[in-house]
Each structure stands twice: as C-alpha cells, then as structure tokens.
Amino acid sequence: MQAFKKFDIQKKGYILPSNFKTILLQMKANLLSPYVRENIDTLITKSTDQSVITYPHFVAFIYLLNNMELIKKIYMTISDENPNKEVSKGQFLKEAQQFSQVTPYEINILFSLIKNLRDDEKITLKDLEKIAPLEEKRMPYRVTAKLAEETQIFQNRNIGLQFLESGYRFLLGSIAGAIGAFAVYPIDLVKTRMQNQRSKSYVGEVMYRNSWDCFKKVVRHEGVLGLYKGLTVQLIGVAPEKAIKLTVNDFVRDKFVQYTGELPLYGEVIAGGMAGGCQVVFTNPMEIVKIRMQVAGEIQSMARSEKTIKIVRELGIFGLYKGVRACLLRDIPFSMIYFPTYSHVKKSFADENGHNSVMSLFYSGLIAGVPAAGLCTPADVIKTRIQVRERQGQTQYNGVIDAMVKIYKEEGAKAFWKGSGARVFRSSPQFGVTLLSYELLQRMFWVDFGGRKPEGSQIDISKDIKHGEIVSLNSEHIGGFKLATVTFAGIENKFGLCFPKFNKVQQ
Asked: What does the alpha-carbon distance between residue 34 and residue 427 come to, in Å, rounded to a whole number?
C-alpha cells in the first residue's frame, strides 16, 4: 500500500503501468519467475483492460502472486492430479469458491496472464509453472509421492521386463502394420508408377496423365487384382518394418520421459528419427522388390516374368539394399516429423479427461501423415528411380547425388514432386489405420510391464466423481474429502509437517 501511495501522488486511486513494473521489480522480485521478468511489460498490459493500474487491480495482482501455491493446489484438485489436463476458466472459478483466499478477480487476472501463452481460455500445470515455477519440494505431498513412486517403478524395471515389453509392442506393431498396408495398397501402386514415369519416355510419350488416369488404366488392362501386385512382399516386409518403427519410437520416448510425466519435444524428434533409421533394415529389401513388381505390370511380358523369388535371386543380399541411402533420407525425416505431430494432434483431440476416442486416434494419424509424407516426397522419388529396373532408353542412376542432378537436368524441379498427391493419400490413411490399430490393440490386449500406458487410453473418471465432487475411497468418510485433501496438503507445505498415510483395510 505504501508503494502504491508513493506513486499515486495526486491520490486519484491509480498509477501508471511503468510505476507498477517498478514496484514489482523492486519489492516483489522474489515472486517473479524468469518468464514473468522477461515479459513483464506485456503481462501487466494484458492483465487489465484499462490504460492505468487501479488500486483494486494492484492488490489482486500482488495477492495472486502470493497465492500461486494455493492456485496450483486448486488446479491439481480439479485435474485429479493430472498435470497435463486442461482446465477451463469456468472450472477454476467454480472450484475457487471453496477458498476464501482466492477471489474471482484474481482468477480473471490469472487467465489474462495465460493469454500470452495460449488463446483457448484453458490452463495446465505447465502454464502455471511459467508464472511461478513449481519446486519439487513445495509440491503437495500426494502429488510428490505419486510422481516419485511411478518414476521409481518405471525407471527401476529390470532388463527382462523391458525386453518382454518391446516384444509385446513388436507383435502388436506387426499386426497393425499389416492392416494399414493392406488398406491403402492400391494407392501405393499408383504412387510408385507415377514416380517412375519419365518425362522423356522411351516410347515417346508419358503413359499416365495423372494419378486417376493411372488408376483407371491399371484396372482396365490388368484387372482389379493388378492394383495388388507385390502385396505379398509388402505384407511380409511391412509387418517387421512397422513393428520395429513403433517399438523403437516407444522405447526411446520412454527414456526421455521426465519425472513429471512430460516428454520434451527434442525427445520426441530424436525418438522418431531413431525409429525411422532402424526400420530401413526391413524397409529397403521389401521396397525394392515391391517396386519392381509394381512397375512390371506396365509391360505385359515383364508382368509374367517378374516373380518375387526371381527378383530376390537376381539382386542378391547386397542388391536388396540398393538405394539404402535414399531410403534413410526419406524415412528418418518422415518419422521425425510424423511421431511428434501425431502425439500433439492426439493430445489436442483428447477430451477433458485426456481420453482419445477411436475417431480422434484415426484423425490424428491422418493429419500427422500429411506434412510428413508431403515434405519427404523428393527423397521418395529419388529412391524409386534408383531401385526400379531401368528399361532400354531410360536414364540410369548411380547414387543419390547422381539421381538428383540427372532428374533436375532432364525433367526440372517439378519431377521431385511427382506422385506427391498419391503419396499423401497413401501414407496419411495408412498411418491413420496403422496407429489406430496399434493403439486399439494395446487397449484390448493391455499387459502391464510396469511401463507407461499409451497416452489417451485413460478411462473416463466421471464414474468416480459425483456432482463434481471427489469421493473418498473410504466408505466411513461422510463428506468434505476434497476440501480436506487440499487443506492438509497446504498444512504440510506451510509448516513442513508430514502426516501419516494409511491404506484402506481390505475387508
């Protein structure tokens, strides 16, 4: 109050934002987080609709900073101790009525500050930490104990359990990969033929005008089964390919999970990149055999002679890895883009309890596949040109750089984007179906290896809540459980006490 009076010389009941900034930096510096310090001018301006700081606003702002620990406890109560759950302003205002120390005005200021971080009128623990970092030693006891227990169990698992979990994921990933590949294989065949089509064709003109024209001609000249040439090879190869991609991605992501359950973005990108690199062991042999069988159907004589066993024998072990560099150039960036995008889109589609419905899982996989497949098309074109069998009069390519130079000189930059539409329409639904199948298989056949459950698989907690109240598991408790939980946590935090914890006695 004395500081406010010092700057309110004319006693009009308000001060300038610059004066308020000075008071905060000089007298309340201990309450300011690095984020608040760096953005203090913007936050002060956004906290009020007026051009000046009134005394009620001044007091509410200071009280809010002083009560941030209580604000966090209110949040943890609403979110059922889920630090990633998004809480709306209405939920916060309703819950804050239980606590006389926090006023609606302070909640309004809080969400005004959060607007600098997000525009959806919701808040998470991560947002609160930006305004007042949550130190582990100041966490509510139940939250600390729960996080510590889960982290200890997760990190101290023996090698045998981790190996079994990876094997379990590998099996489910194989099944999911086969389902996804079968669902979109005709699109994949069209994509391959479009990418292999040369502008300077040896017959003097291009065979297909566009992807739809390619589709119609395949059905007309080769029948509906012609759309599935090379499918057997695809199913044999795609099962371990998708399995190892999903398994490695999950395994590496687990290693980057922090004690709060958060996974940093760089961890997601690294996990995706490693998954994409590992899958090439299975991808390249499968891709080169599949591509040669898909393209063989364009010439009737070749269609009859190109068999899987024959192609494998001709190529040999080393030949099966022809174009492996181009395959790495395509698959590593693809997975680095796809898996982080999928994870974040899936979170945005989750309901208020963090649960993802079947359609939200499919749409997440579908959306994430668009940028990943589209941006990696040039590498896919190069890989296709290197791996396909050259016909008489067609250009031969000796490696990635040689292919890039020759394609650009002969056909221009547009050639690198050939089949991009078919690739997006193939990869997006394929990964949508694959990830949907993988997530549902994990839910249906869940085996607890002491690790993390798939994000978005949480059970709806509404059955444990009656009229918005958290209900005690002990039938002898007659009420006030929510208020007691926060009250005792606050006493523990305030006075450094540690109350005994009792488990419910089994009858």
From this structure: 43
SS3 of 194-254: the string is HHHCCCCCCCCCCCCCCHHHHHHHHHHHHCHHHHHCCHHHHHHHHHHHHHHHHHHHHHHHH
Q: Provide the greatest CA pair distance for the chain.
A: 97
Tell me the pLDDT tens digit for each residue of 71-99. Answer: 888 888 888 878 888 888 888 888 877 76
User: What is the Cα gyration radius of the chain?
Assistant: 30
Assign 465 a pLDDT band (cuts: 50, 70, 90): very low
Distances (CA, A) of 201 to 218, 293, 402, 414: 18, 19, 19, 16
Amino acid sitting at position 3: A
Q: Contact, 313 vs 280, CB < 8 A?
A: no
The per-residue pLDDT for 290 is 73
- What is the value of pTM for the model shown? 0.56
106 forms bridges with which residues in the sheet? none
Cα gap 165→36, rounded to integer Å: 43
Residue entry with tokens 């990108």: 269
Tokens of 408: 């650009």
DSSP state of 416: G
Residues with Cβ within 8 Å of residue 180, at least 6 apart in sequence: 238, 242, 430, 431, 432, 433, 434, 437
pLDDT digits (tens, 9 = 90+) for 235-255: 777 777 788 888 898 888 888
Q: Backbone phi, then psi, for 83, in 5-degree steps? A: -65, -10
Q: Which residue has the tokens 């809480």?
A: 87
Instruction: Of 141, 153, 154, 229, give the one whose Cα is nearest residue 185.
Output: 229
Closest C-alpha among 242, 233, 235, 253 to residue 279: 242
What's the average model confidence in pLDDT over 193-200?
67
φ, ψ at 469 (rounded to 5°): -105, 140
Cβ(123)–Cβ(79) under 8 Å? no
CA angle 280, 286, 290 (to 5 degrees): 135
Other CB atoms within 10 A of residue 118 CB: 13
3-state secondary structure (DSSP) of residue 114: helix
For residue 383, what are the contacts with CB-CB under 8 A and spacing of at least 6?
287, 323, 326, 327, 329, 330
Q: Map tokens 């930096």 to a residue.
A: 25
